[in-house]
Amino acid sequence: MKTFKIIVLVILVAFVGIQFVPTERNQSNVVPATDFLIVNAVSTAIKTKLQVSCYDCHSNNTKYPWYIKVQPTAWFLENHVNDGKSELNFNEWDLLSNRRKASKLRSIIKQIESGEMPLDSYTLMHSAAKFSKSEKQDVLQFMTQVKDSL
Amino acid sequence: MITVLELAEVYQFDFNQRLIIKQIAMRNLKVTIGILAITFLALTAMSCKEAKKEHNNEDGHHTEMGVEENHSEMNHNESEGQHAGEKNEVAMSEAQDGNSELVLKDYFSLKDALVADDNAQAKSLAETLVKSLKGLDVSKFTEAQKTELKDIVEDAVEHAEHISESPIAHQREHFKILSKDVTDMVAITGTANTLYEQFCPMYDKGSAWLSMSKEVRNPYYGSSMLKCGKVQQEIN
């Protein structure tokens, strides 16, 4: 019983302790002129969909949920955002050459098509990020069109 | 701990016994505080380390690659031994650091691993290819060609990196685009050997790849459709 109390106490102290570890936030008010939604003519519906479903991890600005304040969630999210941005950053779209754009678009299309993106761990907490059948079709059609016009 | 002391009083332990119990209780308290302190320190240290790791990620990656390299180099030689035809030997004599022939040699080894459905081998060979791509010397080309080559290399490196960490279905998807990059590279750098651009109409609405031999060995399907495809073009 005593050991149990000690263990609970240790876990509690550790939990409180990690709340003080600083984390970095991915936030910016500036949308650069190289943004995917600026350089491409995008319909409002698709624009909103991409912002809701993709931009949290694939741009310089993440809309954080309330539980970002509770560790260790912040660490987990920080890793996700960093990984996402290094693969694809919609804010920096126009810095890419046509070859690179075509490559990225191929991956975007493949991963949305197969349901790999948005990640299940993301849609679990962000149900609005899920693609309905028609949304998926529209976005895929749009991405294909962008790719073919390169 | 207090309850232990109280208990002692209730049972009217003599002074000596109470002192011993008190000492034990004190020791327990110290141990508890010690454990707490260590846990706290360990957690703090761990999170700091994690942050550091993020920063050092690139360096870490490099050393990791360095270690892996020897390994893949070995595999490389093995597969070279198996496939050593006349043409491969020609390619090998041309293949030096910074040379496009080295990129081609590593590309063909990777292709052979995909033909053999060998996921692990393809992973390590893709790492070797990343290295030879990054080492490609573009200094002797015109400015326009340099820009184009750098672009090709950047794209190809990304796909090779994905191949080095993916299951085989993904590897083949990336190999398709990698093949296009390498074909575009050869269009600029040229090559001493005759290459065959082969084409499989079935994989992903039609996909091409390069080979040293006229005979079709399909890297997109491997053993399940080894001979699907045809020679589309002869280079050189």
Tell me the number of strands of chain A: 0
Distance between the termini of chain A: 69 Å
Instruction: Estimate the helix proportion of chain B, in percent.
Output: 55-70%
What Rg of chain A is obtained from the alpha carbons, in whole angstroms? 19 Å
Q: What summary fits the major beta sheet of chain B?
A: 3 strands, antiparallel
User: What general form of chain B does the structure show?
Assistant: globular
What proportion of the residues of chain A is helical, as a percent range? 40-55%
- Overall, the morphology of chain A is elongated
Report the biggest beta sheet of chain A as strand number plus sense, adding barrel if it closes. none
The whole-number mean of residue pLDDT values of chain B reads 75
Radius of gyration of chain B: 31 Å
Structural class of chain A: mainly alpha
Query: What is the total number of structural domains of chain A?
Result: 1
How many beta-strand elements of chain B?
3
Mean pLDDT of chain A: 89
With strands numbered from the N-terminus, the spatial order across the biggest sheet of chain B is 2-1-3
Q: Can you describe this structure?
A:
The complex is a heterodimer of chains A (150) and B (236). Chain A is an all-alpha fold and 150 residues long. Chain A is 55% helix and 0% strand. Chain A has one domain (2-148). Chain A contains seven helices and no strands. In chain A, helix 5 (98-113) packs antiparallel against helix 7. The termini of chain A are far apart. With 236 residues, chain B is mainly alpha-helical. Chain B has two domains: 2-59; 84-235, no CATH class. Chain B is 69% helix and 7% strand. Chain B contains seven helices and three strands, in the order H-H-H-H-H-H-H-E-E-E. Chain B has helices at 2-10, 15-83, 86-94, 100-115, 119-134, 143-163, 168-189, and strands at residues 195-200, 207-211, 230-235. In chain B, helix 3 packs antiparallel against helix 4. Chain B is globular, with a radius of gyration of 31 Å. Chain B starts with a helix and ends with a strand. Residues 47-87 of chain B have low confidence and may be disordered. Classes of the chains: A mainly alpha (150), B mainly alpha (236). The interface between A and B is medium-sized, with 16 and 19 residues.
